[in-house]
Design goal:
Blueprint (H helix, E strand, L loop, with lengths): L2 H13 L2 H17 L7 H25 L1 H6 L7 H4 L4 H22 L2 H21 L7 H9 L2 H10 L4 H24 L1 H7 L4 H5 L1 H18 L2 H4 L5 H27 L1 H34 L2
Helix pairs in contact: 2-3, 2-9, 2-16, 3-6, 3-7, 3-9, 6-7, 7-8, 7-9, 8-10, 9-10, 10-13, 10-16, 13-15, 15-16
Amino acid sequence: MPAGRRAVWREYFELTKPRVVALMLFTAVVGMLLASPAAPPWPVLAFGSLGIALVAGSAAAINHLVDQRIDAVMARTRGRPLPRGALGTPQVALFAAAIGLAGVALLLAFTNPLCAVLTVGSLIGYAGVYSLFLKHRTPQNIVIGGAAGAAPPLLGWVAISGQIEPGALLLFLIILVWTPPHFWALAIHRKDDYARAGVPMLPVIHGVPFTALRVLQYAIALWAITLIPQAIGMVSGVGGWLYTLGAAGFGARFVWFAWRLRQDPVRWAMPTFRYSIVDLFALFALLLSAHYLSMALAST
């Protein structure tokens, strides 16, 4: 492939926010694997995951379209393809439509209608309700709009089971409560950027001390919620105790970061943001490890 064409495809790839989608896809796959005591059918696992990833990438590309004006103002985002002029609005719109439709087609073909409907709903929630409306009208935007970002593990679970079950809702709740402290830590670091762009993020409207307190409160709430899986039987036995101990440790560490953030927001905003990603990845990895450890011990 010629170098110029590779460069164009890299721009399209950047539209999908690949690092964000990769974390979302990981949680979706964990949801699939936790939904059944047996290994899920490989076509559902492979093509269902791809379908969810494509729809998530479509939502991200639409977000680029909606936010191109403020992206050009903010230091963090002015290097994106649209503000730089590397891609035009019609190109991005066509790309978002193409991968979104392809993703929905895969979900309909390899999973079930409920999974496809919920996935489309999450796209509308993120690209429409959050990006077009909430983000620009309320400092609680990420609390309400976080429901769309919390959907992947629920979608993965439904792709296998065909129904919404308590375990799927708990995975959804974990990410829903994780999202505000994760994003607000970044918003504290980028407060001036958001103020310049006219986006009413919490630290812009209510100040950094207020936001740091909210980060701490949400981190404590998340810590408590992540200890529920063993109580409702999602994980059990030795695997359940290993998960609970691990979740307690990672959660305590997140609360510690949030406490330090409240003491010194300038220094601790980005470390808290980065650790929040580690925390979420670790929680879902622990859940998956506990699930398969329990299965292995039960079969011996």
